[in-house]
Amino acid sequence: MHMANNKKYQKKILVVDDNLAMRKLLESLLDSLGYQDIALAIDGEGGWEQILAEDIEIVISDYSMPGLNGLELLHRIRSSKEFFNLPFVMITGADNWGDFINTVQAEVDRYLLKPITAHRLEEVLDQVHQQQKASSPYLKAIHAGKHCYIHRELAKAFKNFLLAQAIEPKLAKPYYYLGQISKDLDRPADGKKFFKKCLEIEGNYINAVIGLADIFSLEKDYPQMITCLQRALKIAPGSLDLYLRLAKGSFLLGDMVTTRQALKQATRIAKSNPGSVTKVVDAYVESGMLDEADYLFGKKLEEDDNETAMFWNRLGLKAKENGDFKKSKFFYLSALKLRPQAKEVNFNLALLLHEQGEYKSAMAYASKTLRLHPDFLEAQELRNALRAKTREGSLI
């Protein structure tokens, strides 16, 4: 029987899991172990709100959840100035345990593999308590380095991680942070050196792989960037952000086959989280795949004529930028069917028609814009230009 007055059992624990049965199980197990101050959340966003609002001392979170998943919650915590050192226990049912560990090894404190037992839960929490009390030189250097890094004291952070690397040269974490700081200090050669050393020690250290991708992106070395992102996706195949980055890099390289494949995978992942669909729509627009963007936008949208009209206006601008003036005109006219008084759409259509030499139609839309919005200076300038063409006898 555990003593309820033991300090470690007085800690407030946050359980984050979208599965009601799992939340109840964890709450029951924690209670049986003597933990009575327990907060619950159904997803990462709810967990983050609890962390901001309450004095949470340990987080136990599921890995796979809709919305903000466990890994994303972990990264949000580790990136915050106030909570970067909050103990975090990750729960997963992943079959490939080694790959799972390597996806979060830079940040997570301990792991729980389903099915969870009271004995294993107690063992893991005891390890967390012991770690909090630990004061080894390596852990002190890591903690100091993280504290300085979060507060953007990069020179001090670099020295602390160098010290940690000297104490434990066979551990990957110090090399990752040394690479990250080098990248932040605009020393890409050093950044690549440290990231590669990190990956020599732990080949699936995903944060180091992404760090390399960032450097190659800044150097506009898109083939290397894509190679890194594809490597990262083998480690974390469910990452929406990685697929969107792969799509962007492939588009910049002119590889539309890979761009389409990456966006198709991103769409599949986003279907379980409607809040993420907008990111995929934006990626389709930026990649020039306007019909796909329009289709996906229509799927996720609740009836909102104004939002739809503004989205079609955006597609019109992008189509014009891509040189597809027929499609641009189509999107503008579609938008005006929903919002005939929208000044941006009327003006953009007038401008398009002017540039295409359809001066009479351009004058009609420019005049309509000014009837609806008399103070619209750009429309006044356009109408004046069209009037000048009238005086020249060129308005047709």
Beta percentage is 5-15%
Using the coordinates shown, work out and report the CATH topology of the domain at 7-134: Rossmann fold
Q: Give the CATH class of the domain at 7-134.
A: Alpha Beta
Anisotropy-based shape: elongated
Largest sheet: 5 strands, parallel
Order of helices and strands: EHEHEHEHEHHHHHHHHHHHHHHHH
Our Rg estimate from Cα atoms comes to: 27 Å
Gap between N and C termini = 92 Å
Task: State the total count of DSSP E strands.
Answer: 5
Helix content: 55-70%
So, CATH architecture of the domain at 7-134? 3-Layer(aba) Sandwich
Average pLDDT taken over every residue: 86
Poorly predicted regions? none
CATH H level, superfamily name of the domain at 7-134: Response regulator
| Order of adjacent strands in the largest pleated sheet | 2-1-3-4-5
Structural class: mainly alpha
Structure annotation, total helices: 20
Task: Explain this structure.
The chain has 396 residues and is mainly α. Among the domains are: 7-134, 3-Layer(aba) Sandwich (Rossmann fold); 135-208, Serine Threonine Protein Phosphatase 5, Tetratricopeptide repeat, CATH 1.25.40.10; 322-396, Serine Threonine Protein Phosphatase 5, Tetratricopeptide repeat (Alpha Horseshoe). The chain contains 20 helices and five strands. Helix 8 (173-184) runs antiparallel to helix 9. The longest helix has 17 residues, at 305-321. The protein is elongated and about 90 Å long.
